[in-house]
Design brief:
Elements (H helix, E strand, L loop, with lengths): L2 E6 L3 H11 L3 E6 L11 E4 L1 H9 L3 H7 L1 E2 L2 E6 L5 E6 L2 H7 L4 E4 H13 L4 E4 L4 E7 L2 E6 L4 E4 L1 E4 L6 H6 L5 E13 L13 E5 L2 E8 L4 E9 L7 E4 L2 H7 L5 H4 L9 E7 L11 E3 L14 H18 L4 H30 L3 H11 L4 H12 L10
Parallel strand pairs: 1-2, 1-12, 2-8, 5-14, 12-19
Antiparallel strand pairs: 3-7, 4-7, 5-6, 9-10, 10-11, 13-16, 13-18, 14-15, 15-16, 17-18
Length: about 400
């Protein structure tokens, strides 16, 4: 008889985990609190490690069809408009890491995975299931939703995002509210200044702020993301934003990047947070995945990439366990916790460098200007060199 896995959360990580687990003859019940399986947001970046994971899950081609493959990653100084660094991500990059660097609308990558999930007879959905209680024992797990429905399974994966109910039950730790606020918007291509219609993510680094833009959906749209250190006491969450607030934080930068801030017609405002890395994500036949396990700020553009990696490793650990799910979960955690912790901590440091001011800004610019492509590639080998063949290495 097939084992039954409950996955809480129908986002990118939850769907990817479902695909990875059904390969091991596991039946999956996927619980989603929304009334339908979908995704919100704007653009995200996908490194070679993400495409390696998507390929292993069998949805790489679907995601590639919806991606824009970029030529280079560029970092500009928003104060004097000088170029700080440029990393080419064309043929030499692909040879080095085995996959491209792309950008994609969050809804499009979600759809690419969802299509495969919907076709699989061993995956069942339950929407409008807001989880309020989780229990587990040696015999299995039980999950209860707000309507009083109770779901039973042999094991549980909490992929329920940054404010995970499953994590609250398993770990109970507090989030680290960063004080950094992110605004996201999508702009039609014809509204972008012609000189900034660049096929690649361009980051404008300013004092205590930065903005990023890159093309989406075949170049028909551009994603625009701005980040600043808030003057307010922030609480982790999302709400509507205002152009006036954005403009108030982007003082002392050149008019060239600043003109982009007047383009969006609406903004979504995220007050960001992450969590301190921990030594364990679960117990027994329960574990965490994606943002529930290791929420990230945006500075390395690795949130979705890490969730996809998690799913691949989880599936492979289950495959190697001979049916022992608790042992498979502990091996998965042993592999994934150090890597994702490195990404969490490296992301924080990258945010500090992006937002450097004064002498620190000058040092940053001198440190990165003129660096060879090979030195850039060497610096990101630990991140982009991940693939399905080496994913169980520790």
């Amino acid at each position: 008889m097939a084992q039954r896995m409950i996955i809480v959360g129908g986002g990118i990580g939850g769907l990817a985990a479902a695909l990875a687990l059904v390969r091991q003859n596991i039946e999956v019940l996927l619980l989603e609190q929304a009334s339908s399986i979908g995704e919100i947001g704007a653009g995200i970046q996908l490194g070679p490690n993400a495409y390696a994971a998507l390929d292993d899950l069998g949805v790489g081609e679907a995601a590639r069809r919806r991606s824009v493959f970029v030529d280079r990653l560029v970092m500009m100084d928003a104060v004097d408009t000088g170029k700080i660094a440029e990393m080419a991500v064309g043929d030499a990059f692909r040879r080095r890491f085995g996959n491209p660097y792309g950008v994609i609308h969050r809804a499009d990558i979600h759809r690419s995975i969802l299509e495969a999930v919907e076709r699989h007879p061993q995956i069942r959905f339950q929407t409008s299931a807001r989880i309020v209680k989780v229990d587990w024992s040696d015999d299995g797990v039980a999950v209860e939703d707000a309507a009083g429905n109770r779901y039973l399974g042999d094991a549980l994966v909490g992929a329920d995002g940054v404010k995970s109910v499953v994590r609250e039950t398993l770990i109970g730790d507090a989030a680290r509210v960063s004080g950094h606020v992110v605004y996201r918007a999508v702009v039609e291509a014809e509204e972008m200044p012609e000189d900034l219609r660049i096929n690649g993510p361009v980051l404008w680094a300013g004092p205590n702020c930065h903005l990023v833009h890159y093309p989406l959906r075949g170049g028909r749209q551009y994603n625009l993301v701005v980040t600043f250190h808030s003057r307010e006491q922030e609480e982790w969450g999302v709400r509507e934003g205002s152009q006036a607030e954005v403009l108030s934080y982007f003082q002392g930068i050149d008019d060239s990047p600043r003109r982009l801030l007047s383009l969006p017609k609406s903004w979504k405002r995220w007050a960001t947070a992450d969590r301190q890395p921990v030594e364990s994500w679960g117990r027994g036949c329960a574990t965490l995945l994606g943002d529930a396990a290791h929420p990230l700020m945006q500075y390395l553009a690795q949130g979705a990439c890490m969730a996809l990696e998690d799913a691949v490793v989880l599936g492979r650990c289950v495959a190697a366990s001979g049916g022992g799910l608790a042992a498979a979960f502990r091996r998965y955690e042993q592999i994934r916790i150090p890597r994702t912790a490195r990404v969490v901590l490296s992301t924080r440091e990258m945010g500090r460098l992006y937002h450097a001011s004064g002498v620190e800004r000058l040092i940053r610019n001198q440190m990165w200007r003129g660096r060879s492509q090979e030195r850039f590639y060497d610096a990101v080998e630990w991140l982009y060199g991940w693939n399905a063949a080496n994913c169980l290495d520790t």
